[in-house]
Design goal:
- The protein has 352 residues and is an alpha/beta fold.
- The protein has one domain: Rossmann fold, CATH 3.40.50.970.
- Helices cover 39% and strands 11% of the residues.
- It contains eleven helices and eleven strands.
- The protein has helices at residues 29-54, 69-76, 93-98, 102-110, 143-156, 175-186, 206-209, 234-249, 278-285, 289-300, 305-328; strands at 4-6, 9-10, 13-14, 19-20, 84-86, 163-168, 191-197, 200-201, 204-205, 226-230, 255-260.
- The strands form four sheets. A five-stranded parallel sheet has the order 5-6-7-11-10, sandwiched between helices. A two-stranded antiparallel ribbon has the order 1-4.
- The termini are far apart.
- The structure holds thiamine diphosphate and magnesium ion.
- Thiamine diphosphate is lined by residues 90, 138-140, 168-171, 198, 200-202, 267.
């Protein structure tokens, strides 16, 4: 396990365990530049999506990832392009980090035919096979056994790939987690289970749902290696995922990582946020992952303020272009409602 130096306050309560924080590893310039650009793209894309929601151009559910960007970008840089990814419904950031076309994601938020799920999935159901992103799932915890199953396929086919499976802190209370943990450990499946502990499941804090608030310790019952990670630090995320990936590829099976992160926005778009104090949000913003990476880049001399401003400008263009594309795209035609629907032809209860 990584050296530990910090004892972050989680959910207003001092965490007993110490998160893995970034070590003295020297990360190369390219990695820092990827982290900055990719996290900034996620942030700006979602700030725009939030505005568009206010204008009712985006409707339905829309869960923003703002604040959690180090979780996706730090994991991406630690894995290979053939590894598989699955998450819950807070799912715009991961595909953007993986390199999905922002136009297809924005169009999906608009419910347009050119969207990544043909406009039929919306915000919670982004999929992109081209980057091995297997969704976008609305049922809390449902993706946990699916992620283990995907990883099992990789093992069975001897590909050397793994599946990184994300879930929220609310999802660890689902029974499916325990079944998946048991089998994944028994069969040494190459899966990295990640709980993005942002402190709340909708308006309910971790303390209000469980006696055990050190979520990573849930793995102990299965002898599964686990560690808490300071996920406001993209370096710490990268390093923890690298260790877990090494273990998975060596045939040692799963790891459970508790990413200690924070969402700056409400759960979905209509959330009065009465369950937390404003200063708690501000406290986390002081450790903003993008600001931390920006400071590191400047300090290391990897880029200047002007270089970063040019990247910001480029990202603004990409986001604007994605909105234009989504606005100009058509809605799916009515007959699309009958396509891509699973139907078992010999199901005995089907009537004509
Ligand atoms: C099985 C199930 N129960 C309840 C819900 C309603 N629900 C949607 S999101 C959510 C909270 C989940 O919180 P968490 O897992 O911490 O993820 P976060 O929203 O913080 O990313 C709940 C209870 C659901 N979608 N599925
Ligand atoms: Mg949560």
């Amino acid at each position: 396990m990584a050296s530990v130096k910090e004892n972050p306050k989680q959910n207003g309560k001092a965490s007993e365990a110490q998160s893995a924080v970034a070590t003295k590893v020297q990360h190369p310039k390219e990695r820092y530049m990827y982290w900055y650009e990719s996290m900034q793209l996620q942030r700006k894309f979602e700030e725009k999506a939030g505005q568009l929601y206010g204008q009712q151009k985006i409707r339905g559910f829309c869960h923003l990832y703002i604040g959690q960007e180090a979780c996706s970008s730090g994991s991406y840089s630690a894995l290979t392009k053939d590894d598989k990814w699955i998450t819950a419904y807070r799912d715009h950031g991961i595909p953007l980090a993986l390199g999905s076309d922002p136009k297809a994601i924005m169009a999906e938020l608009f419910g347009k035919q050119t969207g990544s799920s043909k406009g039929k999935g919306g915000s919670m159901h982004i999929f992109d096979k081209s980057v091995n992103f297997v969704g976008g799932h609305g049922i809390v915890g449902a993706q946990i056994p699916m992620g283990a199953g995907i990883a099992f396929t990789e093992k069975y086919n001897k590909t050397g790939n793994l599946c990184i499976t994300f879930m929220g802190d609310g999802a660890v209370r689902q029974g499916a987690l325990h079944e998946a943990f048991n089998m994944a450990m028994l069969w040494k499946i190459p899966v990295i289970f990640v709980v993005e502990n942002n402190g709340y499941a909708m308006g309910t804090s971790v303390e209000r749902t469980s006696n055990v608030t050190e979520l990573y310790t849930l793995a102990e019952a299965y002898d599964m290696p686990a560690e808490p990670v300071d996920a406001m630090s993209v370096e710490a995320v990268h390093e923890a995922v690298s260790r877990a990936a090494e273990r998975a590829r060596a045939g040692e099976g799963p790891t459970f990582l508790e990413f200690r992160t924070y969402r700056y926005r409400g759960h979905s778009m209509s959330d009065p946020q009465k369950y937390r104090q404003k200063d708690e949000v501000e406290k986390y913003k002081l450790r903003d992952p993008i600001e931390q990476v920006k400071a590191a880049i400047l300090e290391k001399g990897f880029a200047t303020e002007e270089d970063l401003a040019a990247i910001d400008q480029k990202i603004k263009g990409i986001v604007d272009e994605s909105v234009k594309f989504a606005e100009e795209s058509p809605y799916p035609p009515a007959e699309e409602a009958y396509k891509d629907v699973y139907m078992q032809a010999d199901y005995p209860f089907l009537t004509e």
